[in-house]
Amino acid sequence: MEEHRFERQGATLFYRRWPGLPEHTLVMFHGLASNGTRWSEFAELARARCDWQILTPDLRGHGRASYRGHLTRDDWIDDFLAMLDRSGCEQAVVGGHCLGANLAMRIALEHPDRVRGLVLVEPMLPSALRGVLRFIRPVRWALPALAWPIRAVNALGMHRRTLPVLDLTELDRKTRAMVAEQGDSRAMLKRYAKPNKDMAYLPVATYLQALFQVLREVGPLERIQAPSLALLSGGALLADPAETRRLLQALPRARVEQVDALHWIPTEHPQEMTRLIVEFLDSLG
Q: % helix / strand / coil in the chain, to the nearest 5?
């Protein structure tokens, strides 16, 4: 595994690269308040079974991609295109978890020539949301407004000087051990469903702006022509799997699989997830 950094429009961008054939490139985006280590365990498992090059970026404002300014979905898309160009890739299979899955679909809509396929792990389609996300979606437009005064204060130099980078590979392993010991999912909910813990690892303004992007409509899915694999959890913690499956039927070339998980399929079932994704990659030739 290699680590790469480059400067772009006021941000130090960062991604990890597992070498493979450049014409067979997979890019995986992490979810809200996460970072590229979300996919490190998957990349190690997948590289033992295929020869694909795997890129796992930290989205601008997350992990080692430090940034405290105005943040939009377009910034992440432009960063993705710059990363592909630096890596010498014309096309890639693009995927992600949660927010990352939504971003992958948006890229497929705006830049279909750069997307060979989609891997959607727990996509968060707004009309399928449940719980607190469904409750706050009608007032989602307030989130960037709340972030603005925080960014203004940050610009004056008033912010945390350093932020720890969460190692999700290690956290996942510890969480699986605790779940096995306790015999239920309480350990997972205590760590992965707590915004206050998430915001220990990224700026508050970034969290609010990224949450707004989770709640935005992706766009007309029927226009996405790339072949797609969607992995949905059966736990229905943050999104209704039946409604999500119905909405994904708009994708002309989608295969949908359900995994017995709460929401964090990469944490709960990394082996099964890897098997399904590698089979999908193999099907692309």
A: 45, 20, 30
